[in-house]
Amino acid sequence: MSDLLQSVVNGLLIGAVFALVAVGLTLIYGVMDVINFAHGEMVMLGMYTSFFAWSVLGLDPLWSIPLAGVSIALTGLLMYVGAVGRVLGRSPLAQVIVTFGLQVFLRGLAQFLWTPNTRTIPRPWAAGLRWEIGPVIIGGPQVIMAVGALLATGAVAYFMNRTRLGGAVRAAGEDPAAASLMGIDPRKMYALCWVVAGLATGVAGALLMNSYSASPTAGVSFVLMAFVVVAFGGFGSITGAALAGLLVGVAQGVVGLYAPSYTLAAALALYLVVVLVRPQGLLGTR
Amino acid sequence: MSAPTVLHRPSPARLRAFPVRRLPSWTTAVVIVAALAAYPLVFADSAAHNIGILALTFGIAATGWNLLGGYAGQVSFGHALYFGTGAYTTALLVRDGWSPWLAIALSLPLAALFAAAVGWPCFRLRHHYYSIATIAVAEIVFILVTNLPGLGQANGWELPVVEPSLANLQFSLLDKRPYYYVALGFFCVAALAVWLFLRGRAGNYVRAIRDDQVAAAAVGIDVHRYKLAAAALSGAITALAGGFYVMYVLFVDPPSGLGLDLSVSFTLMAVLGGVGRFWGPLLGAWVLVFVQDLTRQEFSGSGRSVDLLLYGALIVLVSITEPGGLLAILQRLWAPVARRLGRASRTETDPEPVESAEVKA
Amino acid sequence: MSATLLKVDNLSCRFGGLWANRDVSFSVEQGAIMGLIGPNGAGKSTLFAMVAGAQRPTAGRLHFDGRDVTGWPPHAAARAGVGRTFQLMRVFGSMSVLDNLTTASFVRHSRLRDARRRAREVAELAGLVPVLDSPAASLTAAWKKRLEMGRALATDPKLLLLDEVLSGLTPTEAREAVEIVRTINRGGVTILMVEHVMEVIMPLCHRLVVLHYGQKISEGAPEQVAHDPAVVEAYLGKAL
């Protein structure tokens, strides 16, 4: 019983990071109708940024959060301007292929520059913290990751739902023609989506370095998980993605308790069930 | 005057003005197959033969992918599942003492069945959902095969080395040419199957489905049924590549037989060479295998590899600049040459295409 | 009086709390040109979609050629002899005009040669010969509309559903299109057309059905309908 409780808590904590990763993915999808297959690689680059901030500058991953956020935001902008923005309006195939190509490219870049070896930050500051609440043990890195991810997810949701600029982004997503009549340049809004998604994934990457190791393939499992989360929350829904992230995290934690090899398989099966039975997502109304 | 058929190929001079793609003529096919047959005689070293064998093998798989992804417009990122079906079925039966030919032949309908079984529920999904669903199915199978007992798990399977003969589909490693010609034979079978499928009603139907499903249904096309048919043939062809591949390397494990990277590479080959173009996947496969071989020699031992980096850059570049892939670029380069050649050999009054259409009708 | 080809019987369609169509009934006689008109949002397109099998009715029955075909799939409709065009043109963009027509005629001819021959005949009839080899995506809107009509015709329909094929055309183009519609009808094809442009549809149609807020408010010969007070009221503020 205490094992189960422990996995639920662990699941909730990592679920917050899933939510943060998924928020960027669902934002790009919701506004541009593009699936970013390179999303996990953006997380991976965030992890490397944080790692090198530690190995070169001696920064704790907590302090490298802004650096990773800004770097990956710029990377996101570059990906949009250099590639994705150039295939807008082409066939869905062209759009799927271009982000897929970016995925392969970024992974290849990491492998070429930094070798396939895994990089870990030993003993980050958060590792010194530890709480015991009844039978449940909560590690400092997990708490830091969850709190940071929740704050960042909340910030993205606030930006999209409560600010003028966020409203403009949504308007550009709903009806680009009408938005441009109102003086909103849809292409600028699309670029902004990639910046925000980059920020979110960069922050997620830095947070993850508190207990995960960076490697060229580190992003793969996160992006697959993010697909599941996005489908679960309803494609394009930010609040949905945030809630679904926590839910999928818990599900993964519980499955991991009984069948640790099958957590990803279970999540993917969940994706299939969701899109086939309830394509609008668990929380969607469409 | 007999009505031109789909086989009628527009003269290269027209390609620029009329990007409507046609299936290749027999002449093109004969020229390409002849060039492929001559390759191992021109390049005599074993390394070149190895490149050719792999390029043909992956060319088969990418051609299979192209039928579903390129012609029918259903972008699958899970085709490793069918490659793996071919590889694992063949490995399983050959280890049991079966003839590899029979084993490969048996794996084809099995893969077709799997492809149809995946397609049955998933073809209802819109493009992105469908693509992710194919990843999900293939990854689930990958995880199951890696963990469940019975299919070699993570260690994979080795196949027994037996006496070299055509019947055993094993040849001396000193001279790889027999492997090459078997691969070429298999490629021809695959290409012929795709060509036969595409040339008549089914080919028109799947292209119509790719262009507009709603309009396709409105002219009497059972959209779901034709997607399933394309998926089944596509799966079977990809399994053919898997079956031959396992006989060539005599080993299969989840990453080499079922991995996501494998699915990705089929897609990349087709896209690089020219998606929805008949010879595109073969060209793409040849280029990628060649690049991979080149970079592997260059950076061997360092653990770094430049091939992924190059693939990715190539894919992004091609999809931005020329959605028709390398084949489209080649055709564009070839067009002025062909025009000049054509002008020299034909009469002066080559009518404008629009007028010629009126004359015909 | 000739036989009834299409019978729409209390057909209703609801989206959420909104009735797009409610208890609409009318029939189309063999060989007629029937017009379906009404202000924007009157439910013309939904009714059309139900006849073509693209939309499942919430209630009511649909009979075609003596068979109950309520809720049939669109490809079955096409096979049974319902051809349709789309208001927002949906051509097979990557294919040539000839291939567009051939694809459609495959529903009656399984051999490529026969399908292609029929496609050429239809091209002649619909005036598509000058663009036969062009990729459909490169056509102008007027040509695309014509291709839509040709493609529907290539399925050898008994009933042809035309969705606003005349709107958005220049007067010359519209006159040509009207001529094509008449020619098709003279060839024995029954026509049901949705239209906004009243001036063209009045002389063309034998009968009109008027929809308003999803319900039928009037039916009859064009002059009769034009003077129906209910119709005048529905169109109030619009030039009739």
UniProtKB/TrEMBL annotation, chain A:
Its subcellular locations are: Cell membrane
User: What InterPro entries does its record include?
Assistant: ABC_transp_permease, BCAA_transport_permease
**Does the record's keyword annotation contain Transport?**
yes
Q: How does it sit in the membrane?
A: Multi-pass membrane protein
- Which residue ranges run through the membrane? 12-31, 63-81, 93-114, 134-160, 189-209, 221-248, 255-277
Write the record's keywords in alphabetical order, separated by commas: Amino-acid transport, Cell membrane, Membrane, Transmembrane, Transmembrane helix, Transport
Entry's family note: Belongs to the binding-protein-dependent transport system permease family. LivHM subfamily.
Name of this chain's protein: Branched-chain amino acid ABC transporter permease
> What is the native source organism of this protein?
Plantactinospora alkalitolerans
Automatic annotation (TrEMBL), chain B:
Protein's UniProt keywords contain Cytoplasm = no
- Residue ranges annotated as transmembrane are 23-42, 48-68, 100-122, 129-148, 179-198, 228-251, 263-288, 308-330
Record key words, sorted: Cell membrane, Membrane, Transmembrane, Transmembrane helix
Q: InterPro entries per the record?
A: ABC_transp_permease, LivM-like
| Subcellular localization, as worded in the UniProt entry | Cell membrane
Q: What is its main location?
A: membrane
Q: What membrane topology is given?
A: Multi-pass membrane protein
UniProt-listed Pfam families: BPD_transp_2 (PF02653)
Q: Where does the signal peptide begin and end? A: none
Q: Which PANTHER family match?
A: HIGH-AFFINITY BRANCHED-CHAIN AMINO ACID TRANSPORT PROTEIN BRAE (PTHR30482:SF10), HIGH-AFFINITY BRANCHED-CHAIN AMINO ACID TRANSPORT SYSTEM PERMEASE (PTHR30482)
Q: What is this protein called?
A: Branched-chain amino acid ABC transporter permease
Automatic annotation (TrEMBL), chain C:
> What's a Gene Ontology MF term here?
ATP binding
The lineage's top-level taxon is Bacteria
SMART domains annotated for this entry?
A: AAA
Where does the ABC transporter domain lie? 6-238
Q: Which UniProt keywords apply?
A: ATP-binding, Nucleotide-binding, Transport
Q: Name one Pfam family in it.
A: ABC_tran
UniProt xrefs under Gene3D superfamilies: P-loop containing nucleotide triphosphate hydrolases
Name of the protein in question:
ABC transporter ATP-binding protein
Q: Which organism is it from?
A: Plantactinospora alkalitolerans
